[in-house]
Amino acid sequence: MDQLRNKKGFICDMDGVIYHGNQILPGVKEFIDWLYREDKKFLFLTNNSGKTPQELQEKLSRMGLHVDSSHFYTSALATANFIATQTPNAKVFVIGEPGLYNALYEKGIILDDTSPDYVVIGESYSYNYENICRAVRHIQNGARLIGTNSDLTGPTEQGIIPACRAFVKPIEMVTGKEAYYIGKPNPLMMRTGLNMLGVHSKEAAIIGDRMDTDIVSGIESGLDTVLVLSGVSTMETVKTFPYRPRLILKGVGEIPTLAAKEEKAEKTK
């Protein structure tokens, strides 16, 4: 914990770390208070492409957490930035939610269901057979396939549900084309996050609930790694991976509690 509390920057996942659905997780308020009190730089880096930073800010506000929208970065924003850099004024066919549409629009990317340059898929409540067929047709005609993130599942109050990669898989199987996934563990997301914080990777830590996105991202980018068991991962699933997080905690609420104990112990020496 001493190593963790001395970090200058913190990159935190959201689903399964801060909340499940609309339910805040235990100890989160104390964790965020600790980040502010210790003057830490922090960023909520989420693979969920459905909401804008402003909507995420409002969601936390309804839970009693007041965080400026500048502390949020999503896979939708990363996807829009990637496409705008690769193909300015690109045309795209999208299966996703408002957060993804808004991010693409702000980068000057054009929605096109006739001859798009890209098929872009994120989490979606409107995913259906008709849209799958459209996506397949566009890819067969030369469009390139992009997934906002590689998460197969996601945690909710009701349990585990399908996420982006589960939506992309049928299209990959039919077309024989593999998607390029933008979100974690793609280094694009991590480099952007560190740049937004203005800290070196050695001065930062990543906190997440997934071994296959959060923890591997941290390991490959040189960040300190903290796995919380409040989302997807369990002690049993951790054992199935060839890599390990440096710390495993029940939830983020343990960070300020353990940090306070260490500080008290240091003062009594």
From TrEMBL:
Gene3D superfamilies referenced in this protein's UniProt entry, alphabetically: HAD superfamily/HAD-like
Top-level taxon: Bacteria
UniProt-annotated binding residues for substrate: K184
One GO cellular component term: cytoplasm
Co-factor(s): Mg(2+)
Active-site residue numbers: D13, D15
Enzyme class of the recorded protein, top EC level: hydrolase
Cofactor binding note from Swiss-Prot or TrEMBL: Divalent metal ions. Mg(2+) is the most effective.
InterPro entries in the cross-refs: HAD-like_sf, HAD-SF_hydro_IIA, HAD_sf
Keyword list, A-Z: Magnesium, Metal-binding
A Pfam family recorded for this sequence: Hydrolase_6
TM regions (residue ranges): none
MF GO annotations: metal ion binding; phosphatase activity
Enzyme Commission no: 3.1.3.-
Residues at which Mg(2+) binds: D13, D15, D209
Xref: NCBIfam families: HAD-SF-IIA
Family the UniProt entry places it in: Belongs to the HAD-like hydrolase superfamily. NagD family.
Protein role: Catalyzes the dephosphorylation of 2-6 carbon acid sugars in vitro.
Name the UniProt record assigns to this protein: Acid sugar phosphatase
Source organism of the structure: Anaerotignum lactatifermentans DSM 14214
